[in-house]
Design brief:
Largest sheet: 3 strands, antiparallel
Structural class: mainly alpha
Radius of gyration: 23 Å
Shape: globular
Helix content: 40-55%
Number of helices: 18
Distance between the termini: 20 Å
């Protein structure tokens, strides 16, 4: 008798689990670098880059010594980049794009010309929005963005040419169009899945990336200068993070096969969509809502600390045992992106009357490392990462949760593009690590003997 569809997949799943489990000892026996991480937590060196540099510790006679985090774009400290454009009372994302793509800072004329180029490419091809976005709306905007990128292949007269000139053209068009793709994907989701009114604004070439985002996602297209500045800062801070982050590595792995730009970037979007990567800020906000609902007195550090203990012991929140937004795969003492964003978050909290919630964030940031050390009995150094405050900032800007990760993608497409170009120039070989088969030989049994 045939099983139900639900029953048969449950039955098959148990077979798969039984026949795909590898004991942890096997990974230790063969010295497998799980997650491409060394035993001391450092990353396995698999390539060289000049695009971005993440520095968080020094190695002294084999010992990992934590230091304050540093993030450099093309060798320039992120603190200096941010201070540079803020001190001149201008936005910084377009300058950051130029720096990452071309490896040097633009002069005034170069920056103006590049900004105009991006502005001229923001509009989607004819009928793209209708045929590729509105006719196939998705509940998940990252899924919609990936499909929009793959669909762009069909609208490109020269999609498979991987020369630097053609790849650069494709990358610049994607950098320019990501805000429009995301905004239209969001509006389609709101209309067809949430039964809300449909608002489709045309992108404005004279506006910056941050301005266009707010113009496109808001029904009335209004925004303040302060809102633009903090969103622009978020884009700058998310634009690049070295070659080892999962989505950038995915870009390099896929592009090393010689495939087209759209396939490589779609793979990166699929990676960023994951809750362990670009979706982490959503996890932070979900956790914060849980804490706010269960901690009666937000200013009582003892009560907050006790609830963090419950979270780490898997007795609260989602049962994962993680304090989301605390700790990072590389950073130890500090994440410079979190440091910079925290300053703006405080300003925004005062402007929006959200100071009580902001203070809860800072309390958790201060207490979490101490609680982590006590519960985990670990000397691992942890601190707040950029995701800890980015969700708070997005919420304060009135940006819907479903746009948090897509906004990350709008920024990171710049870093992906820079690494894609670098891989084309310097790679040369398909990236193919090794896997050890530990199954052993199994004799084949005829059907009648099974």
């Amino acid at each position: 008798m045939l099983m139900t569809c639900e029953g048969i997949y449950s039955y098959y799943s148990e077979i798969i689990k039984r026949n795909n489990h590898i004991q942890n000892e096997m990974f230790e026996k063969y010295n497998v670098k799980r997650g491409l991480r060394n035993a001391d937590g450092t990353g396995v060196l698999v390539g060289l880059t000049e695009v971005g540099d993440v520095h968080a510790y020094i190695m002294d006679e084999g010992e990992k010594i934590p230091v304050e985090g540093k993030l450099r774009y093309r060798g320039i400290d992120i603190y200096d980049i941010v201070e540079g454009f803020i001190s001149e009372n201008r936005l910084g994302f377009e300058e950051t794009c130029y720096l990452l793509l071309f490896g040097e800072l633009p002069n005034k004329q170069q920056l103006d010309e590049f900004s105009q180029l991006l502005g001229s490419k923001r509009t989607l091809p004819d009928y793209f929005a209708e045929d590729m976005i509105l006719k196939a709306p998705s509940k998940d905007i990252m899924n919609k963005l990936a499909r929009a990128v793959l669909a762009s292949y069909s609208y490109d007269e020269n999609p498979d040419d991987t020369s630097i000139e053609n790849t650069l053209r494709q990358c610049i068009e994607l950098i320019a169009r990501f805000p429009t793709m995301v905004a239209y994907g969001y509006q389609a989701k709101r209309h067809y899945h949430d039964r809300q009114s449909l608002f489709l604004h045309s992108p404005k070439p004279e506006l910056s990336t941050a301005e266009n985002i707010l113009h496109l996602i808001r029904p009335d297209s209004t925004y303040t200068r302060s809102e633009v500045e903090i969103l622009d800062l978020l884009l700058v801070l998310h634009a690049e993070h070295g070659g080892g982050n999962n989505s950038t590595f995915a870009t390099r792995v896929v592009s090393s096969s010689g495939t087209d730009t759209y396939s490589a970037i779609a793979a990166a979007i699929g990676s960023l969509k994951g809750p362990k990567h670009g979706g982490a800020n959503i996890k932070v906000m979900q956790m914060m809502e849980n804490i706010k609902a269960n901690v009666k007195n937000w200013s009582d550090e003892g009560e907050v600390s006790d609830y963090l203990v419950k979270i780490l012991k898997k007795e609260a929140n989602d049962g994962s045992g993680l304090i989301y937004g605390i700790g990072h795969a590389v950073y130890t003492l500090s994440d410079p992106r979190a440091v910079l964003l925290k300053r703006k978050a405080e300003e925004l909290a005062k402007e929006t009357g959200n100071e009580e919630e902001y203070n809860l964030f800072t309390t958790i940031e201060r207490l979490a490392p101490e609680v982590f050390a006590k519960v985990k009995k670990s000397d691992k150094v942890v601190s707040a990462n950029v995701d800890f405050y980015s969700g708070f900032v997005y919420k304060s800007l009135g940006i819907p949760v479903e746009l948090y990760t897509p906004l990350f993608a709008i920024a990171r497409i710049t870093g992906w593009s820079a690494h894609l170009l670098e891989e084309h120039i310097n790679g040369g070989r398909i990236i193919r690590p090794a896997y050890k088969n530990v199954k052993g030989k199994i004799p084949y049994k005829p059907l009648k003997d099974r």
